[in-house]
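[agent] plan:
  1. take the single chain provided in the ticket
  2. run structure prediction with default settings
  3. attach structure tokens to the ticket
  4. add a short note for the reviewer (M.T.)
[agent] executing step 1
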Amino acid sequence: MAKTTDHAAEVLKQIKSEVNEDVIKDYHMPTLCNMETGQDTGFAVIITLNTKYGYTDAVLNDWKTRLEADEFVINVKRSQLQVKFNVRYDS
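[agent] step 2 finished; step 3 output follows
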């Protein structure tokens, strides 16, 4: 599969259909940019999740694989749980 935001949106749609309706509260996909060259290097999929559920390593790694992400980072901001999946374009 190609690493595109369209593909990521389709994967998110599939994931949303597999989990409780209120698990994924919101998401957005900003561009990743190399600060030295100004070139787009990929995009991030930032998912805001409901804090009333637990998210195991297995679940997050499954989502990472399905999104074709290189890594994920967990962040809590103003009591909001966010997981950022970095999807870098192939060189």
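[agent] step 4 note for reviewer: The mean pLDDT is 94.
[agent] ticket updated
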